[in-house]
Amino acid sequence: MRTQVGIVGAGPAGLVLSHLLHRQGIESVVIEARSREYCEERVRAGVLEQGTVDLLEEIGVGERMRREGLTHYGVNLRFSGRTHHIDFRELTGGRGIVIYAQHEVIKDLVKARLASKGQILFDVEDVSIRDFGETKSSAKPTILFRKEGEAQQLTCDFIAGCDGSHGICRPSIPDGVLTLFERVYPFAWLGILAEAPPSSEELIYAYHERGFALLSMRSPQISRLYLQCKPDENLVEWSDERIWEELHTRLATTEGWRLIEGPIIQKGVTGMRSSVVEPMQYGKLFIAGDAAHIVPPTGAKGLNLAVADVRVLARAFGEYYASGRQDLLEAYSKTCLRRVWKVQRFSWWMTSMLHLWENENAFDHRRQLAELDYVTSSRAASQTLAENYVGLPME
Ligand code: RFL
Ligand code: PHB
């Protein structure tokens, strides 16, 4: 088999890339280890930046998102029992976010790819890549894999490593090429989906002396809630009753607000990490999304950053195939990293401000409260949060 761009991974990065390439007349094949059903049901992100929403609309996969997604023009920060609204519309000149689950985005993208005869090979095994290290035009990068037990090869002009944080593309780059920048946080999130109408129209990020809590949602019937917990938290110790009790405590206000409960339909623990590898390319291999960088979920940026990377990559491939220009491809990593680091900074800052840290003392607690007070009372500080949350300019 042969194609122009071989894409490893059918997450948001791989599928958006494939669709953007198709729209420029560039052929690609997506190789995915999991089943279509698994990819379309995997519960993950829920917040789409304005720029992500605009892109999905522009490439023709925004119809259901427009109908079913919930547009929000702000978020709430809650601390000391009081709620403070950050008004995105007013602070960013009318921008907002859309709440629409990542797996719904995946369903829309898979459908659009298959409708335009795009090739996505699900359920492949033993994926490996080779001959991608050289940039000469005679080099033929190859993706090797097994499909239904049979060994296959996909020869390409380029490989896009969109295979997430546990993928094979990044580890295939020889030792000594990449530098890893990383910070692991001493806490995690216990997340639930509940059949309960959201208790707030917009998201609530809560700072509490027992730890962070977040109220989010998926639809007018389904709430998504998170609690800061230990990285090795044992879910068995968290009965539904205990989860609700802790959420009530951490989200409590003096404003007469009430948390609506409902049956819990999904529970999970997510670790928290910030990481970046540099550069995001090697020879004819380009890595994008979680394969290149991880952000802690507090800024709701992972999916959005993945989409931003492949937007840069698709444009660079477009120029290459249209005119033979290689400068955009050569600049791919540099172009992406400038934005990646700003988004890392924002995600780290939100995480630091809102979580309880071990070894913290009363001074740190007061300092965090002062920071929250500042962010919610100074227009300049609120605007900083707002412009980052709705998404920095793409390039
Ligand atoms: P993905 O989505 O992990 O996709 C990678 C794909 O590659 C496949 N794969 C392989 N395929 C072939 N061969 C191999 N050897 C392979 N190894 C892996 C995988 O099966 C998968 O299909 O990476 P991508 O495309 O870079 O997208 C990144 C996002 O998924 C991720 O950053 C977000 O989910 C992070 N995230 C959030 N991001 C947001 O923008 N907004 C949010 O509100 C938000 N909330 C979250 C989140 C992530 C969370 N978890 C569970 C980590 C909330 C949570 C709880
Ligand atoms: C979510 O709805 O899953 C969500 C929302 C905001 C975040 C992280 C996750 O910061």
Note down, in words, how this protein is organized.
The chain has 395 residues and is α+β, with helices and mostly antiparallel strands. The chain has two domains: 5-73 and 96-181 and 273-349, FAD/NAD(P)-binding domain (3-Layer(bba) Sandwich); 185-272 and 358-390, 2-Layer Sandwich (D-Amino Acid Oxidase, Chain A, domain 2). Helix content is 36%, strand content 27%. The chain contains 13 helices and 20 strands. It has an eight-stranded mixed β-sheet. Helix 1 runs parallel beside helix 6, helix 1 runs parallel beside helix 9 (302-323) and helix 9 (302-323) runs antiparallel to helix 11. The radius of gyration is 22 Å and the shape is globular. The relative contact order is 0.17. The chain binds 8-demethyl-8-dimethylamino-flavin-adenine-dinucleotide and P-hydroxybenzoic acid.
Give the SSE map:
Blueprint: E1 5-8, H1 12-23, E2 28-31, H2 36-41, E3 47-49, H3 50-58, H4 63-68, E4 70-72, E5 74-79, E6 82-87, H5 88-92, E7 97-99, H6 102-115, E8 119-121, E9 124-130, E10 142-147, E11 150-155, E12 158-161, H7 169-172, E13 179-194, E14 204-206, E15 213-217, E16 223-229, H8 240-251, E17 264-278, E18 281-282, E19 285-287, E20 293-294, H9 302-323, H10 327-330, H11 332-354, H12 362-377, H13 379-389
Parallel strand pairs: 1-2, 1-12, 2-8, 5-14, 12-19
Antiparallel strand pairs: 3-7, 4-7, 5-6, 9-10, 10-11, 13-16, 13-17, 14-15, 15-16, 17-20, 18-19
Helix pairs in contact: 1-6, 1-9, 9-11, 12-13
This protein binds 8-demethyl-8-dimethylamino-flavin-adenine-dinucleotide (RFL) and P-hydroxybenzoic acid (PHB).
